[in-house]
C-alpha cells in the first residue's frame, strides 16, 4: 500500500465495545484506517463539520437519533458511502431493507465477541464491505488486496468432459454483490410471469435473505423466495441463495432442483457466485443464461466463463450503471461476457437471450 492513501472510516455506534472491536478489525487491514469514532449521530455530525471520511460505518439503534434517520439526512445534505452495522435479525431485517432504500451501500452484522468463527470469517466480510463502499462510484477500478482464497473447486470440482443428459429447459443464473440488492429489484421487477426459472446469489449475511426475498416477492410479477434444499426450479420463480450457505443447481431427469450445502468461503464468500455458475454450467449447458452484476472483487468471473464455454448466453452489467464495477469487469477480462448491458436493459437482454436459445435448440 506504499504511496496509496488509506481509506478513512468514521464509526458511529453507541456501544464502546463495538466501537473498539470495529476499530481493531478495520485497523488490521493495510488499506483502511479509523478516522474517528462517535457514540451517536449528533457527535458524528459535529465530527463531519471538521473532516470528511471515505466511509461511515453506522449503527441503527442509538440514543437521541436512530441510524436510518441520520442516514436519510446525510444522503439529502452530504451523500457519503455508508455501511450499516447492525444486529438485525428476524423482523428487524425490515430495517435492513429500509437502510438500503435510504442509500446505504451495504449492511454487515455487528461483531459477536463470543464467537471465534465470526472473528475469523466476518472480519473479512466487514473489511470487504467497507472497501467496496469506499470505491462505490469513486475509484471503481481498484481491486481488493490479493490474498489467498479458495475457488469453486473447494465446493464443486471441475466437471471434465463428461457428457450431459439432454434437456430443453432454460434457466437464468444471476450473481451480484455490492449494490446488487437494488440492482436485483430493478431486474426482477421488470421480468414477466412467463420468465424462465431464475437462481440468484447475492452476497448477503445470514438472517437477511429471507426478508429480502419476501420484499422482492411483494414487488415483482414473478414469485421470489429464499431457496431451500430440494426446491424445484420453476418458470416464473426466482430463488435467492440463503446467506451463509452455498447454492447449487442440480437436475433430476429433465427437472432442475436446488441443493443448499455447507462449505468453505469461496472467493471470500458463502454463498459464492462461482459455485452457482459452475453448477449451472454442468447441468444446463447451452440452455442457461448467466448474468453478472455490480459487486466488488472477482467472484463469478470464472464460473461465468465456464458457462459461456459450454454454450450459455452471458450478460454483464455495464460500468456506468454498476455501483462497483468489479465483478462485471473481471468477468469481461476473463472473456466471460458475451453482451454488456445497462441495468435497466438487462431484463430485455435476458428475455432476448432466452428466446435466442430456444430458437437455436429448435433449429
TrEMBL record:
Tell me the active site: 177, 203, 299
**PTM comment:** Phosphorylated by CheA. Phosphorylation of the N-terminal regulatory domain activates the methylesterase activity.
What this protein is called in its record is: Protein-glutamate methylesterase/protein-glutamine glutaminase
Instruction: Say yes or no: keyword Nucleus present.
Output: no
What Enzyme Commission number(s) apply to this enzyme?
3.1.1.61, 3.5.1.44
Q: What is recorded about the protein's domains?
A: Contains a C-terminal catalytic domain, and an N-terminal region which modulates catalytic activity.
User: From which source organism is this entry?
Assistant: Palleronia marisminoris
Residues covered by the Response regulatory domain:
8-125
Query: Function of this protein?
Result: Involved in chemotaxis. Part of a chemotaxis signal transduction system that modulates chemotaxis in response to various stimuli. Catalyzes the demethylation of specific methylglutamate residues introduced into the chemoreceptors (methyl-accepting chemotaxis proteins or MCP) by CheR. Also mediates the irreversible deamidation of specific glutamine residues to glutamic acid.
Question: What molecular functions are annotated in GO for this chain?
Answer: phosphorelay response regulator activity; protein-glutamate methylesterase activity; protein-glutamine glutaminase activity
Going by the UniProt record, its keywords in alphabetical order are: Chemotaxis, Cytoplasm, Hydrolase, Phosphoprotein
The gene name reads: cheB
Which PROSITE patterns did the record assign?
CHEB, RESPONSE_REGULATORY
Amino acid at each position: 500500500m506504499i504511496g496509496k492513501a488509506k481509506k478513512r472510516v468514521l464509526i458511529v455506534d453507541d456501544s464502546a465495545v463495538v466501537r473498539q472491536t470495529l476499530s481493531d478489525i478495520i485497523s488490521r487491514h493495510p488499506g483502511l484506517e479509523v478516522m474517528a469514532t462517535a457514540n451517536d449521530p449528533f457527535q458524528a455530525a459535529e465530527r463531519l463539520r471538521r473532516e470528511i471520511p471515505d466511509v461511515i460505518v453506522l449503527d441503527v439503534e442509538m440514543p437521541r437519533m436512530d441510524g436510518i434517520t441520520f442516514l436519510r439526512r446525510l444522503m439529502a445534505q452530504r451523500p457519503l458511502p455508508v455501511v450499516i452495522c447492525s444486529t438485525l435479525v428476524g423482523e428487524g431485517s425490515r430495517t435492513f431493507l429500509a437502510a438500503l432504500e435510504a442509500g446505504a451501500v451495504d449492511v454487515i452484522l455487528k461483531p459477536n465477541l463470543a464467537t471465534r468463527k465470526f472473528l475469523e470469517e466476518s472480519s473479512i466480510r466487514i473489511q470487504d464491505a467497507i472497501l467496496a463502499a469506499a470505491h462505490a462510484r469513486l475509484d471503481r477500478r481498484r481491486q481488493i488486496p490479493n490474498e489467498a482464497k479458495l475457488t469453486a473447486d473447494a465446493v464443486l470440482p471441475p466437471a471434465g468432459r463428461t457428457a450431459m443428459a439432454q434437456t430443453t429447459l432454460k434457466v437464468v443464473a444471476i450473481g451480484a454483490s455490492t449494490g446488487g440488492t437494488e440492482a436485483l429489484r430493478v431486474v426482477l421487477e421488470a421480468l414477466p410471469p412467463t420468465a424462465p426459472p431464475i437462481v440468484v446469489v447475492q452476497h448477503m449475511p445470514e438472517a437477511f435473505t429471507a426478508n429480502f426475498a419476501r420484499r422482492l416477492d411483494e414487488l415483482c410479477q414473478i414469485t421470489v423466495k429464499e431457496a431451500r434444499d430440494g426446491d424445484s426450479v420453476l418458470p416464473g420463480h426466482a430463488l435467492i441463495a440463503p446467506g451463509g450457505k452455498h447454492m447449487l443447481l442440480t437436475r433430476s431427469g429433465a427437472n432442475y432442483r436446488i441443493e443448499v450445502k455447507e462449505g468453505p468461503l469461496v472467493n471470500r464468500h458463502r454463498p459464492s457466485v462461482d459455485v452457482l455458475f459452475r453448477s449451472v454450467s454442468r447441468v444446463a449447458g447451452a440452455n442457461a443464461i448467466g448474468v453478472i452484476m455490480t459487486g466488488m472483487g472477482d467472484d463469478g468471473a470464472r464460473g461465468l466463463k465456464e458457462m459461456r464455454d459450454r454454450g450459455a448466453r452471458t450478460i454483464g452489467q455495464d460500468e456506468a450503471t454498476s455501483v462497483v464495477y468489479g465483478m462485471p469487469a473481471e468477468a469481461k477480462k476473463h472473456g466471460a461476457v458475451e453482451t454488456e448491458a445497462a441495468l435497466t436493459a438487462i431484463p430485455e437482454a435476458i428475455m432476448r437471450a432466452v428466446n435466442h436459445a430456444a430458437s437455436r435448440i429448435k433449429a
